[in-house]
Specification:
The structure holds two protein chains of two kinds. Chain A is α+β, with helices and mostly antiparallel strands. Chain A is built from 16 helices and 24 strands. Classes of the chains: A alpha+beta, B alpha+beta.
């Protein structure tokens, strides 16, 4: 069955597979209707083995999160395949391929004669799938049923014949059916492009050779990943971080990871992460040991350390994730999952943090984030026309790293919208848009700055949404002696008597004339800031990236643009705490005086012993109790136990259910 | 009657094409480029032309030339030291660019350093509304403060890039006037003067690139003009442009931004000429040199145009002939990593030290070395005797690759070629999917030093049937420059719905643009004829965030036919994207006018000839797919029109070597083009 394959032919086949995946992506990008696909590039395309392992993806097109997504769960949900079939699902709880309802995944078998060779696969993020709110996404939603219509895995096209009824039901339930239909057609065109390209490859190389090539590129990625783990000392490497609010106005959500490296393999244990949330921040993984969502950061780490790796499913073979059931990283139905991107982003940072412990100094400090994706709905005062537009992603920078300062202002594939386009199309006035000085974490290599935007609206009932707001309370850590980045902010009418701190609010109703300032957090710094060359600090000050006051974090005294040599020497000579491998932000350090790792671990134990539906509730009750506990700092674990017991006291029925769960 | 000369300066070689206007005979020449002393290679070439062909400078009747001075200034970071004046609140326009980092998978990925660093971006208090009305007039005090700061920073020039200047350039002009009143003679550039498009980053970076290169380019052109005059060249030189046209050198001093990507553009124009001559409607040109491999799609001899092409690390948003890089060319280095994975490129041996077989100190095996090991290269002379192929050096370098792969040297060479072709296949596949075209309907036109070596192999992989190798494949860009028309682009952002009520405004904008275009042709270029005016618009559905350029008939504007404009947009939208919404409102973002002054084209006479069987110079062994084939070696000069032969064959000529694998049949068309057809 499997032809023997030499490494050169393998590389040639790899080029052909990538050509197919990239041709799919370009076809989709070209023929899609929605801005989500065309501008944000929130889509994927790829090829999988008959059992669902993705072996080819486009390198520089589309969303970067889903390289190596495993389609097994949905492929297996269909009884049999024949040429001309195209299958579809957007259900986060069927097969754990789709991760929130707007993502519509399609897969199509590719045959060589009778032989099933592979699947062409891909998804797009639909602007709306129906449900409780426009765009189907809100942090406040609590059940997946509120997040739009869900199509379980089924055949949309059966042997070349479209299931018109299914299509009609789907389109009847969404707010912009023509856009969804247009994008769906583009997806189908993209799958057919893959089929044609793979048929070309089969004609050129033969089915056996192509078959061997598919598995060969997966094996290659696996060998590359194993080589990385082999270079890491066996041991446990832990990291945790928070989402500021686990629900609107809520308490922090802890996400915890312990990486256990053994030889060429590793276990990624997410135990200790919070119970599933009564909000849409849950990350549906089904507990699959190689689900892609908890491994996005892993792909980035492996690729960053060795850009020659093959980006495919093989990279995750040496890894096994532990994702406790009923947790934020493996919620049970019907937990809402729409905003899982915020959680996934934070976990990417945690993975980088854990690898920083395994490979000290090799990886960048914590990436910035939390700015959110800014949209506005307002009325044009002149024409009376309703205007809705995405204004901009408010982005933050990359972490400082061994090879230099972090990138200022951005760290992802997101693009901005020119101010001139925004103002020409939406009746708002942008007052400023640029970097936020002093937001980057100090370090030998400074963390990248966050961006800020200030704008004004002019008509009543204007609504500004800022999806994925976070990092108002806790910020990104510094590495290798570098310091944490700054937190971010969201303020209405700043600098006026009625200024209002909007914190992590994600929906703001504005009055005419309201001015909003929104910013992203800064990234962490890398290396001891006191070792940053004085000239580099002077240049940052000259550039306005660091203020003269901010320069003191580097032990550099500058006044009126002029270096004070003596004061600098004094600052740098003064005693200070020894640089640490990981430096957390001051707010987190203060918070963890009560909510220490041990305290969280104890709370986690207590909560996970409860039935799923009690966990989130009891977490909040316990938080409320502990907040009242003046002695909490003295013995946090005892305080958590006291708080939990007090919180549980009014609920005798809980004792019964707790017994059941145990 | 005299001699028309086209010159293209490349990284390694400078190419010359000399056309005898009387006989239409074409002569070619290559000399080594002189990046250390730009212009010297031009004078050296002229001297060689006189020496070899007996053509004196005084006999030159037309002279075009593509300069790399500007592009090198950007790549080497040696442009003028600029300050950018931006609207208060927006000093990070260059720093943020469009946010996206180059490689989002790479945690270490960084955007290039801004062309003008943040300390030299100074804010001016002013604000214009999107409709071009003034919100806050430019504040003189803030302008003077910025000027003082710029001088303290040692600025050699100032670029003014203010918000919404595409809608009304008045604020930029007012700021410029304030500065010039204080410092007459200081180079000051307004973004709306350079290229008045909407989108502040795109307009500002284009203006900054211009400000950065203009002084250097102008200085170079002035010196060259003087040197040519001193040598007795009686005509004013022309310079080639990124849009595939030419303009007077005098205009080039003012519009240096338009010259930066002229080399690849001229190559595509030359390829288009050959494609038309050989009678192929759809052609993909493949230009492979020592350090680059570029492709362009040509329909009826015309290339596509694109904006945002990179000059070094920075994009330029003037319309540019669309040429895509698909690899690192013949100098691509082959390596094998510790897992036994072979790679070809992206690192290149460049022109220095170059491939091992050039014997200039290169030790690593390259794609060119692979062809030398196969036996394709080395049978004839290359580069007009400037390069001699050292097959032993190639084999020595390739043996290292072979050892790492566990293969013999010949098999390693074949692996390198096969992988290089597979990489090109991948890149070309992307390109065709991007434009939604079917590769098998295209012929491949191979040129550049290494293109004809690879052309048949890539054509096979892409399912293309025919390969064209022009008569002078090594100097096609020089030929393209020689044949190019006077050409210039004009743009006006209007932001109007396509509707009857807006036609008067559109007519006014069109009238202004057409007037500017005609004035350029007549006054700046001194062209006698009317020129050919073409009109296009950047159109989109209202609410869409991207525009497509649609060709318009001038009548649709002048005779107020908005429905025709909309219909053309729907049709073009359907053509590109596969769908259109004929009920949706159509929005016209910008109007574009291109004027072309047609220059004299040589009408090369066909030389029909009966089929003939040329006699090979000899036969050479070539390693091909695991065996050694006996290939006929032909001297290109000894292949007159009508010649027919079958692969395997090697065709050697001064500037390139063509590899004709088994399965291809060759013939020479009446214009001397070599046509290779896959059976």
């Amino acid at each position: 069955m499997t032809a023997s394959l030499d490494p050169v032919t393998l590389q040639i086949l790899k080029s052909h597979f990538e050509a197919a995946a990239e041709s799919m992506a370009y076809t989709l990008l070209r023929t899609a209707h929605s801005a989500f696909v065309k501008e944000t590039e929130d889509f994927t395309s790829g090829l999988t083995t008959p059992c669902g392992q993705t072996f080819a993806s486009p390198k520089d097109l589309g969303a970067t999160w889903f390289v190596g997504l495993d389609y097994a769960g949905v492929i297996g949900a269909i009884d049999s395949y024949r040429p001309g079939d195209i299958c579809i699902t957007n259900d986060p709880y069927s097969g754990y391929v789709c991760t929130h309802a707007p993502d519509m995944h399609l897969w199509m078998p590719v045959f060589a004669g009778e032989r099933l060779m592979c699947f062409a696969v891909g998804h797009i993020h639909n602007t709306d799938m129906g449900g409780a709110v426009p765009a189907s996404l809100s942090r406040a939603l609590t059940e997946v049923h509120q997040e739009g219509i869900r199509i379980p895995p089924c055949k949309l096209v059966d042997g070349g014949v479209m299931d018109e009824k299914l299509l009609a039901v789907m389109l009847r339930n969404v707010r912009m059916p023509e856009q969804n239909w247009g994008d769906l057609k583009a997806q189908i065109a993209s799958l057919k492009t893959a089929e044609r390209k793979m048929h070309e490859a089969i004609a050129r190389f033969g089915a056996d050779m192509v078959h061997a090539g598919m598995y060969g590129v997966l094996d290659l990625a696996e060998r590359q990943a194993r080589r990385l783990f082999a270079s890491i000392d066996d041991g446990e490497y832990g990291f945790s971080d928070y989402i500021d609010e686990d629900s609107p106005g809520g308490v922090p959500c802890r996400l915890k990871l312990t990486i256990r490296v053994r030889g060429e393999e590793a276990e990624f244990d997410f135990s200790g992460s919070d119970p599933q949330l009564q909000s849409a921040l849950n990350m549906p993984t089904g507990g699959l040991p190689r689900h892609i969502l908890p491994l996005v950061g892993y792909n980035y780490v492996v690729y960053s350390l060795d850009p020659t790796v093959a980006l495919n499913c093989g990279l995750s073979r040496p890894v096994r994730c532990i994702l406790p059931e009923g947790s934020v990283v493996n919620p049970v139905h019907p937990a809402a999952t729409g905003m899982r991107s915020l959680t996934c982003t934070r976990i990417q940072g945690i993975v980088i943090g854990a690898f920083s412990r395994a490979l000290p100094g090799r990886l960048p400090a914590g990436p910035a984030g939390g700015g959110g994706i800014l949209n506005v709905r307002t009325t044009d005062a002149r024409t009376g026309r309703l205007a809705m537009a995405s204004i901009n992603p408010i982005t933050g920078g990359g972490g400082g790293a061994a090879n230099g300062d972090g990138q200022d202002g951005s760290n992802s594939f997101l693009k901005n919208t020119p101010v001139e386009i925004t103002e020409a199309e939406v009746p708002i006035r942008v007052l400023s848009y640029g970097l936020q000085p002093d937001s980057g974490g100090p370090g030998l290599h400074r963390g990248g700055l966050g961006t800020q935007m200030t704008f004004q609206v002019f008509t009543p009932n204007s609504v500004v949404t800022a999806r994925n707001r976070d990092r108002v309370r806790f910020s990104s850590w510094g590495a290798a002696g570098g310091l944490a980045g700054a937190t971010c902010g969201f303020t209405r009418n700043p600098g006026t008597a009625n200024a209002e701190d909007l914190g992590n609010t994600d929906v703001v109703r504005c009055a005419p004339g309201d001015v909003l300032t929104i910013s992203a957090s800064g990234a962490g710094g890398w290396g001891d800031p006191f070792e940053r060359p004085v000239e580099a600090v002077l240049r940052d000050v000259a550039q306005g990236k660091v203020s003269e006051a901010g320069a003191r974090a580097y032990g550099v005294a500058i006044a009126g643009g002029v270096l004070d040599q003596a004061a600098t020497e004094a600052l740098r000579a003064a005693p200070r705490p020894a640089p640490q491998a990981i430096t957390l932000d001051p707010a987190r350090i203060a918070f963890e005086r009560v909510w220490s790792e041990a305290a969280w671990d104890r709370l986690s134990e207590l909560l996970f012993a409860l039935p799923v539906e009690w966990r989130f509730f009891m977490k909040h009750q316990t938080f409320a109790q502990v907040a009242q506990d003046a002695a909490a700092e003295a013995d946090p674990v005892a305080a958590i136990e006291r708080g939990f017991a007090a919180a549980a006291a009014p609920y005798p029925q809980l004792a019964v259910r707790q017994g059941e769960a145990a | 009657m005299g001699y028309r000369i086209g010159v293209d300066i490349g990284g390694t070689f400078t190419d010359f094409c000399v056309l005898d206007e009387a006989s239409l005979a074409l002569r070619t020449l290559k000399v080594l480029s002189r990046p250390d002393a730009p212009g010297e290679e031009v004078l050296h070439g002229l001297a060689e032309i006189e020496r070899r062909f007996g053509i004196a400078p005084a006999e030159v009747s037309y002279f075009t030339h593509g300069s790399t001075v500007g592009v090198n200034a950007i790549i080497q970071g040696r442009g003028a030291k600029l300050c950018l004046l931006a609207t208060a609140g927006f000093r990070d326009v260059l720093e943020l660019a469009r946010l996206k980092i180059p490689d989002p998978y790479d945690l270490f990925s960084r955007r290039p350093e801004p062309l003008v660093p943040r300390e030299r971006v100074l804010e001016v208090r002013e604000r214009m509304n999107p409709d071009g009305s003034t919100d806050i007039a430019p504040e003189r005090a803030s302008v003077l403060a910025a000027l003082a700061r710029a001088e303290a920073l040692g600025a050699e020039g100032i670029v003014i890039g203010l918000l919404h200047s595409y809608a009304n350039p008045a604020h930029e002009q007012a700021v410029k006037a304030m500065i010039l009143a204080e410092r007459p003679g200081l180079p000051v550039f307004c973004s709306a003067e350079i290229w008045p498009i909407v989108r502040e980053y795109e307009r500002s970076i284009t203006a900054c690139i211009h400000g950065s290169v203009q002084p250097r380019v102008a200085h170079y052109i002035t010196r060259l003009e003087a040197a040519l005059a001193a040598r007795g060249v009686p005509v004013a030189p022309m310079v080639t442009k990124s849009n595939g046209g030419v303009m007077t050198a005098a205009a080039g001093k003012l519009r240096s931004i338009e010259m930066l990507l002229s080399g690849t553009a001229s190559g595509a124009i030359g390829a288009g000429f050959v494609a038309r001559q050989a009678g192929f409607a759809r052609v993909m040109s493949l230009d492979v040199g020592g350090t680059s491999a570029d492709v362009a799609l040509l329909r009826d001899g015309m290339p596509d145009f694109r904006t945002g092409e990179l000059v070094g690390d920075y994009p330029v948003f003037l319309p540019t002939v669309s040429v895509s890089s698909i690899g690192a060319g013949g100098g691509s280095i082959a390596t094998v990593d510790d897992l036994g994975v072979l790679r070809v490129g992206p690192d290149s041996a460049g022109s220095v030290p170059g491939p091992a077989c050039y014997g200039r100190g290169g030790a690593q095996a390259t794609l060119t070395d692979a062809f030398a090991v196969k036996g394709v290269l080395g049978a004839g002379e290359l580069g007009y005797g400037a390069v001699r192929i050292d097959a032993v050096a190639a084999a020595t370098a390739m043996a290292v690759v072979g050892e790492a792969l566990g293969r013999d040297t010949a098999a390693a060479a074949e692996a390198v070629v096969a992988l290089a072709v597979a990489n090109m296949y991948r890149e070309v596949s992307r390109l065709f999917s991007q434009v939604g075209e079917e590769p098998s309907l295209y012929a491949l036109l191979a040129f550049g030093g290494a293109g004809p070596m690879l052309g048949c192999l890539l054509a096979e992989e892409m399912g293309m049937r025919a390969v064209i190798v022009p008569r002078t494949p090594g100097v096609l860009a020089a030929l393209g420059g020689l044949l190019a028309d006077l050409r210039s682009d004009f743009v006006r952002v209007v932001f109007l719905d396509v509707a009857a009520a807006n036609m008067v405004a559109l007519q006014a904008a069109f009238g202004e643009l057409a007037g500017e275009a005609r004035a350029w042709l007549a006054d700046s270029q001194g062209h006698a004829g009317d020129g050919v005016l073409s009109v296009a618009a950047d159109l989109r559905y209202r609410g869409q965030s991207y525009e497509i350029e649609v060709a318009l008939e001038p009548d649709w504007i002048t005779q107020a036919r908005p429905e025709r404009i909309a219909a053309a947009f729907h049709a073009r939208h359907a053509e590109i994207y596969g769908h259109a919404d004929e009920r949706a409102a159509v929005h016209l973002v910008a109007l574009r006018v291109v004027i072309a002054g047609v220059t004299a084209k040589p009408d090369f006479p066909p030389e029909p000839a009966p089929p003939g069987d040329p006699v090979p110079a000899r036969h050479v062994p070539v390693a091909h797919r695991g065996t050694v084939v006996r290939a006929a070696l032909f001297d290109r000069a000894a292949l007159p029109p009508g010649s027919r032969f079958a692969g395997p064959a090697v065709v050697a000529q001064d500037d390139t070597t063509t590899w004709v694998p088994p399965g291809f049949a060759g013939h020479v068309d009446p214009y001397g083009n070599l046509i290779l057809v896959r059976s």
